[in-house]
Sequence to fold (333 residues):
Amino acid sequence: FAESWALAAAHTRTLSMSFMFGVRAARLSLRCPTGPASRPSSMGHSLRCYSSRPSRFGNKKRTQVLEQEPEAARGGDWVSQSQVKEAPPTAAGAPATFPSYEQRQQQAGSQYESLSDGVVAHMRRVYATLATGIGISAAASVTAMATPLGLVHPLIPGLGAMVPLLGLMYTSKHTHSQTLRAGLFAAFTGLSGWAMAPLLLVALKVSPAIVPQALAITTGLFGTMTALSLFAKPGSMLRLGVPLGAGMLMLLGCGVAGMFVPVTSAWYPLLHSINLYGGLGIFTLYIAYDTQNMINEYEMGEDDHLKHAVDLFINFKVIFQRVLLLLMGRSDD
Fold:
């Protein structure tokens, strides 16, 4: 029974991995508008878009910042430095300039030191939402284990959880009801907990102490990576985006290959180990990446706490599953 469940869980993880990769790709595509990032004008200015969605700074659909950039001579259009006017001063009397990424890194020692009151309030809301989602998921798991719902194949609630997740990713707090989006978040976390019920039942049969041990280890990893991202330099963890995306593709390929490789094959243990240990490492690093990405997106105008809580919930769930499987394997030995 345990082997058949492990195979079903592997297939569920593969489908979830492919869907999570698509969700992250969709999130990236929604951050910036289409078209060139800069449109030079005849006066030597360029119009750059810093946010393509409504923000907390106003009701505009697009926040645009006009920067003055003198251009070199092109054809018959000559723009000299004297023709470029200085940027208008702000209310405090300082010129309206925007520091570069290197200047911001030199000014701020760590991400924690650069947190504003608005960012701190947003993070508290995100973590409160995350804790609520974990509680809903745990309640759904306990309910499923205590009822015949625990006998349902995990693929059914696992695939069902993708429906509210899609609805949450492609809706906005500015255009849809907050109650509707909160319901989608609750449905996603509840179905995710239901899908984990059979695995939790097997783990409890192996040893009743495995589940609380896995929860404690996952919470410790989550807290450690969150602290690491806060005490690192601002934006330093965002450089991990491309390597982590490549790792997701590797896990997706190994998961798909594992679906077609028999359990008795010599390749199956290798693919299973890559999926297990590789997924644990990648999603542990994703905690640090998503923490700084949440801060960066809030500063750019994206203050949707539900979407940020979903990213962290997925990381927590994947890490918990893999730690649970590792502890189960150690107990079997």
